Automatic annotation (TrEMBL):
Keywords: Coiled coil. This is DUF4062 domain-containing protein. Residues 6-87 form the DUF4062 domain. InterPro entries: DUF4062. The keyword Coiled coil applies. The keyword Coiled coil applies. The lineage of its organism: Bacteria, Pseudomonadati, Pseudomonadota, Alphaproteobacteria, Hyphomicrobiales. Residues 170-197 form a coiled coil.
Length: 341
């Protein structure tokens, strides 16, 4: 279904009239719906309430900052800054386009009042602290900057948008579709659970209370030599999973999980901290076992730096089992149960 996104364009007006016109033209060419207050100056509280409603209806917010702070309310806060703060407070994605050198702007388009100049600089600093900021020096640059930045933002953070009323499915149909989707999802989970149960039975997997020997090594530096110590730690599968499960919430890398298991194994026999090397064959067995038990997934995917790596995650079953083995149970209920017995 085709959607159009409503974009609020915020700026001072008199000094950026041409810039606003260029940006609004760009938004219209992108099939967006521009919204702004150039025809309705925010001069009183009633008008400000109206502006907030318009911002509430928008999908994205664009700020163009030149060399002026603009008109202020009775408290001395600029309406452009108020719009910016309000958009941020309701979670709108904000794209800010800041003039890179305000001192080069003609005097007629600059803030001459000392107090307003100070507020302008403070506001400019606040805006620059945001992540989605681009800098411009001429009106001709803005259309390209706005189009490129908005397209990237829409792709990365798709909003609700607007559609024609005659293209919208009726409310009753949506309710029925939603109900069927929930039912379909529940059936899929039942099938997956049944398949997993049959799969586990065919593999004859070790139970959670059965033990596994974790082999690891570490070094001890002595006066004239370095000794390598090899040890075994006998742990149940429940203990192994319970020890690392909370860390899997943050999707750690394969290497980090290996280090975690090594430290857990070391601490079953020792105190203090050592750089521990877990036997690779043991680590691979633990990995396959936890995958087969349906507790974790191990995926090869892109890193935050753009490369590729192997990362661990909890499954729904893993999250439920983690809650069962790692949460603190109520002593009151246990005592009451014991007294009842």
């Amino acid at each position: 279904m085709d959607k159009r996104f409503q974009v609020f364009v915020s700026s001072t007006y008199a000094d950026l009239e041409q810039e606003r016109r260029s940006v609004i033209q760009t938004l219209m060419e992108m099939d967006c719906i521009p919204a702004g207050m150039e025809l309705f100056p925010a001069s009183d509280d009633d008008q400000w309430q109206f502006i907030k409603k318009v911002i509430d209806d928008c999908d994205y917010y664009i700020l163009i900052l030149g060399g002026r702070y603009g008109s202020t309310n009775v408290e001395g806060i600029g309406y452009t800054e108020m719009e910016f703060d309000y958009a941020k407070s309701i979670g709108l994605k904000i794209l800010s386009f800041v003039h890179e050198n305000p001192s080069s702007i003609p005097v007629a388009k600059s803030e001459l009042d000392a107090s307003l100049r100070e507020k302008f600089e403070a506001f400019r600093t606040k805006v620059k602290a945001d992540r989605l900021v681009k800098f411009w020096s001429s009106e001709k640059e803005l259309p390209g900057l706005v189009a490129f930045s908005l397209m990237k933002t829409i792709k990365a953070y798709p909003a609700i948008g607007w559609v024609r009323a005659d293209k919208v499915t009726s409310e009753s149909s949506l309710i029925e579709i939603n109900s069927l989707q929930k039912e379909n999802s529940a059936l899929k989970k039942q099938i997956e659970s049944a398949n997993s149960s049959l799969y586990n039975k065919s593999l004859n997997l070790a139970g959670f209370d059965e033990t596994f020997d974790l082999k690891y090594s570490y070094t001890i530096k002595r006066q004239y030599a370095t000794d390598t110590i090899s040890e075994n730690a006998k742990m149940t599968w429940q203990q192994i999973f319970g020890a690392i499960a909370p860390e899997l919430i943050s999707h750690p890398s394969d290497g980090k999980v290996e280090s975690m298991i090594g430290r857990v194994a070391y601490k079953t026999n020792n105190t203090g901290e050592k750089v521990v090397k877990l036997d690779n064959d043991c680590f691979q067995t633990v990995k396959v076992q936890l995958i087969a038990l349906g507790l974790v997934t191990v995926d090869y995917r892109q890193t935050t730096q753009g490369g590729m790596g192997v990362f661990w995650s909890l499954t729904d079953k893993g999250s439920s089992f983690m809650a069962a083995v790692r949460t603190v149970k109520s002593a009151k209920k246990e005592n009451a149960r014991a007294e009842g017995d």
